[in-house]
Specification:
The protein is α/β, with parallel strands linked by helices. It is 29% helix and 31% strand. The protein is built from five helices and twelve strands.
Length: 232
């Protein structure tokens, strides 16, 4: 049976605010699950998919290394770049304008209880989107995310970062696809803790500015396909 997923585009929103929205949605689902176990409710959990763009911010995963930020806290402040240690997986990454950030809050017990499969499914969404632009997105063994030419050390470049958290099989955090992103911000960190591979964007690969709404529409289409859901 196809799942219904509530979709909302938050627009440009500060990272901390978007995090609070995710936490509230996750808490609502985990609370329902706790009460269902106790027989206190028959209420069902709901799925959500949030899109947004963030003002410049570096976020560090719970297993990440703060040394992968190559500038000081003072310089971060001077450059108006926010910084958040987070509870997601992964290392350091950048979010900024011209990037489509997607936060699925899904109850995986209604799909499959397999985080690896979930991550591969998110990657598949982006791989299918890239194909619409004539680009061959791919996976890099042992490295979460979507890459171009991952097998060529001289050319390998990451176009989409992934990092998630899961509580009682309810997900949060998600993916960040570089569309028209200012890639200079990535030179101030060791992206995802991987020093020997580059970062790219749709704009850089295609040699033109890419319409953000078009990219969002295509992500929604492929998300609905991969997760067999109706975005409502």
């Amino acid at each position: 049976m196809r799942q219904d997923v509530h979709f909302r585009d938050l627009g440009i929103v500060e990272y901390g605010e978007a995090w609070q929205i995710q936490e509230a949605l996750l808490k609502a689902s985990t609370s329902i699950k706790s009460r269902r176990v106790k027989g206190e409710t028959t209420e069902e959990t709901e799925h959500h998919l949030l899109f947004c763009e963030h003002p410049p911010v570096y976020t560090l995963g719970k297993s990440g290394d703060e040394a992968h930020i190559l500038i000081s806290k003072e310089e971060l402040s001077q450059r108006n770049i926010a910084y958040y240690p987070t509870n997601r997986g992964g290392d350091i990454t950048f979010h900024g304008l011209g990037q489509v950030v997607g936060y699925p809050i899904l109850d995986l017990e209604k799909y499959y209880t397999d985080i690896g499969k979930y991550l591969r499914s998110l990657e598949e969404v982006i791989i299918l989107v890239l194909a619409e632009y004539g680009l061959k997105g791919d996976r890099s063994p042992g490295e979460t995310g979507v890459w171009l030419d991952p097998d060529n050390k001289m050319k390998a470049r990451k176009i989409c970062a992934l990092g998630v958290r899961c509580s009682r099989w309810v997900t949060m955090h998600g993916f960040a696809l570089n569309v028209n992103t200012n890639l200079d911000y990535f030179t101030l960190i060791v992206p995802c803790g991987i020093a020997d591979k580059q970062v790219t964007s749709l704009e850089k690969e295609l040699g033109r500015i890419v319409e953000m709404e078009e990219v969002k529409r295509r992500i929604k289409e492929k998300f609905s396909l991969v997760f067999e859901c109706n975005l409502i």
